[in-house]
Design a protein that fits this description.
It is built from 23 helices and 16 strands. The protein is of the alpha/beta class. The structure holds pyridoxal-5'-phosphate (PLP). The site of pyridoxal-5'-phosphate has 18 residues, from helix 13.
């Protein structure tokens, strides 16, 4: 083992490197390591970091892991990718999957319809899929900061699930402070309570008058602001982000796509090498991007189906080649974690398919004119990989009811995938639907779908579903309603910077 490590260095083996989506500005480094990309996620011209290359793993890697645990698979993938994180830290990070409901199977894959299998990504501490990546990410980032003896401010913009998961993972961790921005009124009661009851000196939660895109653009602006960074520098604090603009999250979102496929092989649903559809409820496109990278590394995927709600900019992009926000405003839906129009990780796909020069051109066009149009050839390339559809609120509720009548309780984000499946899975292949939240996080919509109740608070909806489905309300959710509210800041978006600086005093 030791010898292997020495050889590794002697032979000058190159660790995983990252390049930029919008070309290089001559100021930022041309390429960075994984830890650099994590600590400073915004690249030249406001771009993002993407892997320079990915290994081709294919069937041998999958076959090798047919009997591996989730953690064994994850460890091998991360070491094969050769990120510059010590194995002991990787192990410590992956150990957080032991906090999931069933440590031996953190991501259960269950059959719901004949060809449709649901991969449940919500069994972590905050009951949504953000835990899949943010739990280990918290350890990785905090350990890099400690090793460098640096203090970090982590910004997180949330539509409701990233916030709780980021607060949970960084709570009381050394060398890290977290500011979490959420749209006031744009989250469920449970999501809000998960944030505003988080009591730790290193955490600050700020509600803003606006929607998620407002929160995210405020965040991106601060991340790119030289003056904000130098103000922080004078306090010896560096700045990073916990959103999926950070590749440190994406890397942990590749693993469960491989795992879910292997689960279908283990359950004798498919044979190794058989193609499947991945069906992903999408907002910022981090989950789908993980599936894209898994496919590039050799996962047998026919297509990645992108499911959206009424904020259907991704459906239109994939079906027409046009990303167009000129006539759009974010609308509030029953699947609020997907109430997003500016979907950050699409940029990484553009870069991979069309290169950095073209991506810079397209992203500038989007920023200046609020739209861009891919040419026919580009659109075809995109469609070779993805198909897409969207699901409105009443369709979603019908799918929730139908699944429940068949014995399966699911949340409204997961429901959008059922619509997309019906529309996009044109070949008789098995489909993996990703379930991104537990029923407890969006209970009023589900109670309405199942029992027709309207205008209920989360707590009453939880009780109603619990009774109908004959399933208990998990204690960590129940407990939220009696916890004291310690984070009560709600401000206009113009005042975010001032408020953050006040917290850092
Ligand atoms: C974040 C989230 C999504 C969207 O995932 P992206 O990776 O941003 O596309 C979907 N559903 C739920 C419940 C989420 O929390």
């Amino acid at each position: 083992m030791f010898l292997a490590i020495i050889l590794h260095f002697l032979l000058g083996y190159i660790i995983m490197k990252f390049i930029e989506t919008r070309t290089n500005d001559g100021i930022h480094p041309n390429e960075v390591t994984f830890s650099q990309a994590i600590l400073s996620p915004i690249a030249s011209f406001g771009g993002l970091y993407v892997p320079r290359e990915l290994p081709s793993l294919g069937e041998p890697f999958l076959s090798k892991h047919l009997n591996s645990s989730y953690k064994e698979l994850a460890f091998d993938l991360l070491t094969t990718l050769d990120i510059d994180i010590e194995p002991s830290v990787i192990n410590e990070a992956l150990a957080l999957y032991d906090k999931f409901d069933d440590p031996s199977n953190p991501v259960p894959v269950v059959k719901v319809r004949d060809d449709l299998y649901v991969s449940e990504l919500y069994h972590g501490p905050t009951r949504a899929f953000k835990d899949m990546a943010l739990q280990p990410f918290g350890i990785v980032l905090s350990s890099i900061a400690q090793k460098r003896n640096e203090e970090y401010l982590i910004l997180a913009a949330t539509s409701g699930d990233t916030g709780p998961a980021a607060l949970e993972t960084f709570k009381n961790r050394p060398n890290v402070r977290v500011v979490c921005l959420y749209p006031d009124g744009g989250t469920s009661d449970v999501q809000r309570l998960q944030m505003v009851t988080e009591d730790a000196k290193n955490l600050k939660v700020i509600g803003i008058h606006g929607d998620f895109d407002d929160a995210q653009s405020a965040l991106k602006k601060l991340l790119g602001s030289a003056t904000f960074k130098s103000t922080l520098k004078s306090k010896n604090i560096s700045l990073s982000a916990a959103n999926s603009v950070n590749f440190g999250r994406i890397i942990f979102q590749i693993i469960y796509h491989l795992h879910s496929y292997l689960e279908l092989v283990r359950q004798n649903v498919i044979i190794m090498g058989e193609k499947v559809y991945l069906d992903v409820p999408s907002g910022n496109f981090g989950n789908a991007l993980g599936g894209y990278y898994a496919t590039k590394m050799g996962l047998p995927v026919e297509k990645i189906i992108i499911a959206s709600n009424e904020n259907n900019v991704l459906t239109r992009l994939i079906n027409t080649g046009r990303y167009d926000l000129r006539h759009d405003k974010v609308v509030s839906t029953t699947s609020p974690a997907m109430d997003i129009l500016i979907s950050s990780n699409v940029e990484r796909i553009l870069c991979d398919l069309f290169g950095d020069i073209r991506t810079k051109e397209l992203m500038e066009k989007l920023e200046n004119d609020r739209f861009y149009t891919l040419d026919d050839d580009e659109t075809m390339k995109l469609q070779a990989m993805f198909s897409a559809d969207y699901c409105n609120g009443s369709e979603g509720k019908a799918y929730i009811k139908e699944a429940f009548d068949g014995g399966y309780l699911m949340d409204p984000h997961t429901a959008t995938c059922f619509k997309a499946y019906d529309c996009c899975a044109t070949q008789p292949l098995k489909t993996i639907v990703y379930s991104t939240a537990e029923w407890t996080k969006f209970s009023p919509t589900i109670a309405n779908a199942l029992n027709g109740v309207v205008d209920v608070q989360d707590i009453d909806a939880l009780k109603s579903i619990s009774k109908t489905a004959n399933t208990p309300i998990p204690t960590m959710i129940q407990g939220l309603f009696s916890k004291p509210i310690v984070q009560d800041t709600v401000i206009d978006k113009e005042n975010i910077e001032t408020e953050i600086l006040k917290f850092l005093e």
